[in-house]
Amino acid sequence: MALLTQPSFTAKASLIYITLGALLDVWTSVWYFSFRDPIHPMEKSTLFWLSGFFVMGLILMLIGFLMGPLGRYARKAELPPTEAVNAEANIQQAAASTPVTVVPLATETVPGAGSQSQNSVGIAAR
Q: Which of 63, 77, 76 is nearest to 17 (CA)?
């Protein structure tokens, strides 16, 4: 079955979303805790960007965590019913166990057939 031989796209995409979201959250947190100063508070625009990047990282991770199970459910839904798979396997097994009969081709030429075929080709070409 060709469907089962291809790896799932959602597994790769899920890992990418989770990785990007986690990296975004880690570096946003590092920047916030490194440059946070209680004496001089950050500007509102800086806090806006920091919170935006942090929430975006959380949402990317959430999408990645939800995409894995959804991909598994979709893959199960795409599979044919087990009755059809078993019937197809039986058909393939029966076809593989039945030898193919080979009929030898006649190699003798019929007298006069060669000149007729040449004449008919010659007439059609004119």
A: 63
Rounded distance between C-alpha atoms, residue 114 and residue 97, angstroms = 42
Q: Cβ of 24: how many Cβ atoms within 10 Å? A: 19
59's CB contacts (< 8 A; 6+ apart) are 21
Pick from 26, 31, 20, 23: which is nearest to 60 by CA?
20
The answer to whether position 37 is within a domain reads: yes
Q: Which residue has the tokens 């100063």?
A: 37
* Structural domain boundaries enclosing 33: 8-98
Span 51-57, average pLDDT: 96
pTM value?
0.55
pLDDT digits (tens, 9 = 90+) for 77-91: 767 677 766 777 777
Residue environment code for 109-124, b if the CB has 16+ CB neighbours within 10 A, otherwise e: eeeeeeeeeeeeeeee
Task: Please indicate, yes or no, if residue 125 is contained in any of the structural domains.
Answer: no
The total of structural domains in the chain comes to 1
